[in-house]
Amino acid sequence: MAEPSELLTAGADVLVAGGGNAALCAAINAARAGARVLVVEAAPKFYRGGNTRHTRNLRCAHDEGNEVLTGPYPEEEFWDDLMRVTGGETDEELARFTIAQSKELWDYMNEQGVRFQPSLGGTLSLGRTNAFFLGGGRAMINALYRTAEALGVRVVYEAEVVDVEIEDGFFLSATVSHGGTRHRIAAKALVAAAGGFEANIEWLTEAWGPEAKNFLIRGTPYNRGSMLRLLLDRGVRPIGDPKQCHAVAIDARAPKFDGGISTRLDCVVFGIVVNRAAERFYDEGEDFWPKRYAIWGRLVAAQPEQIAYAIIDRTSIDKFMPSVFPPIEAASIEELAGRLELDPAALRHTVESFNAAVRPGSFDPAALDDCRTEGLAPEKTHWARPIAEPPFYAYPLRPGITFTYLGVRVNRRAQIVMDDGKPSANMFAAGEIMAGNVLGKGYLAGIGMTIGAVFGRIAGREAGHHVRN
């Protein structure tokens, strides 16, 4: 087996920066187009795959169900769902293109050795819209690596692009650092698939201010945005707002980095959420959780000290997939407040006011039911039930950043667009680094993997065609 230094000095037709879903789809398609492909992954081999390691599924449009997907998910429904969460802040052409292309992902992933399974219980009710990976994200990424390496793709770990040479929008070379040595790689095409800047706390603080120091990073600590910064500094046109991101409310006891999906909390719709003043601040039952869970990171980020608390009682403790951390339990609301270091009288007032406002209905977690409040600010519009049966439970919440939306602008061929509006002939992007073209704000469960796979395939194909021509 060749040493990493030999792989780096051997040259390549296509250089792929990154090691997750988008990067591997690009590498596979470029190799199938006949190109010599080199993948440089900043993480060690054990942590390869970026945020893909923590995923469970991808969202794909399809006209009929199959052995895993429980029913059809038409393109127009996918589009409506995307419009609802983004509020229209998306490039419609690229978004509709992504959705149309997603119909090919089931077959494509199977061809690469990725296997699927029925959705697990408590996974946001996604059995119809999302295909779940057998063995999760790590199994999925391992399958892509096996396929890529069988095609002759070379991979070097703990290797980071630290400089790029671009002239008039044309990629000439990249400098890759590995083991303290820098290597110049004059590839014929570059695919940037190295993620966003979510693990770069300094950059997050530039956008958010000091509150960013309280954010937790759900994914890999290796997505620091160095590739993105290089491209933006060298004349690539940006897309997206640096404050927009996929941010969910996760268990505040999670580690600073790499906690993954097991730290996400899905209990919000079944109770109330209060801040440090023990006050509610948003409608917990606004819509189905798959369409609203990704707004809660930003909501908590706006609260004092960037922390909140989800409060439920005995009737709801078995209605959701729990966090890896146990709930904080108490026999009374006052005792629970004490354990959370909240004002007991204030929390009791909030809970009693909520309970008094609840209007009886037919509770149904699978429907937008008629269990609601009346005369409350903010109202809870669905799944409202009194919090009255002990024991009482709480989960502390903090903003959990998955990935950022500031990125590089691309076209339908995954070509990176320069500041003058012209697409680069030999630079392509896929995955989180260009997701802001589709996601101006908000998030749909599984769509990050969709964007990465769709544009990874295209970037690899186009890079391979460029090399051949």
From TrEMBL:
Ranges where the FAD-dependent oxidoreductase 2 FAD-binding domain occurs: 13-447
Needed cofactors: FAD
Pfam families for this protein: FAD_binding_2
Entry-linked Gene3D superfamilies: FAD/NAD(P)-binding domain (3.50.50.60), Succinate dehydrogenase/fumarate reductase flavoprotein, catalytic domain (3.90.700.10)
Presence of keyword Metal-binding: no
Keyword tags: FAD, Flavoprotein, Oxidoreductase
NCBIfam families for the chain: CobZ_N-term, PRK08274.1
PANTHER family hit by this protein: FAD-DEPENDENT OXIDOREDUCTASE 2 FAD BINDING DOMAIN-CONTAINING PROTEIN (PTHR43400:SF7), FUMARATE REDUCTASE (PTHR43400)
Name recorded for this polypeptide: FAD-dependent tricarballylate dehydrogenase TcuA
Underlying gene: tcuA
